[in-house]
Amino acid sequence: MSRDEDHDGREDGIEHPEHRGDHADADTPRPVRETGTEAAANAPDSDPVADIILGLVAERGPGKSICVSEAARAAQQAFGKPGDDGEAWRRYLPGVRQQAKSLARQGRLRILRKGRPVDPHQPIKGVIRLAAVREDDGAR
User: Fold this and answer.
1) How far apart are CA 127 and CA 120, in angstroms?
2) Torsion over CA of 84, 14, 121 and 43, rounded to 10 degrees?
3) What is the spatial distance between Cα 138 and Cα 15, in angstroms, rounded to a whole number?
4) Residue ranges under compositional bias (Basic and acidic residues) (predicted)?
5) What would the mean pLDDT of 113-117 be, rounded to a whole number?
6) Structural domain of 83
7) How many folded domains does the chain comprise?
8) CATH number for the domain that contains residue 91
9) Domain membership flag for residue 73
10) What does the alpha-carbon distance between residue 93 and residue 14 come to, in Å, rounded to a whole number?
11) What is the band of 46 on the pLDDT scale with cuts at 50, 70, 90?
């Protein structure tokens, strides 16, 4: 096992489809976490981390945002192992940030830095928050 892999084969906390048991030829859809939005739950290629992010943002409500760490903690709760330590959620941060950028590029989420939307096609560094897309400005 390399230094960058954790004990279940995932590199740097990013969960890859081959480690989740997702296969393109699978006949059964993946389970979707209850906090996912209805649209995300009905999407055949829906990602569980995306469902968590969209669900948390929807629960927070319009004009509000969530911290990336909230989504990472929810992902750890959903996918973590019994006995994980209190800091295990941190390994989900890179995957949550990656999925948030993907959702923002699709126009399904806004990424905020210092309260302002950022371009998801550019590198994003530092503290960010995630918010629902607003009708008046759309996602960037």
Assistant:
1) 14
2) -90
3) 29
4) 1-36
5) 95
6) 17-131
7) 1
8) 1.10.10.10
9) yes
10) 8
11) confident
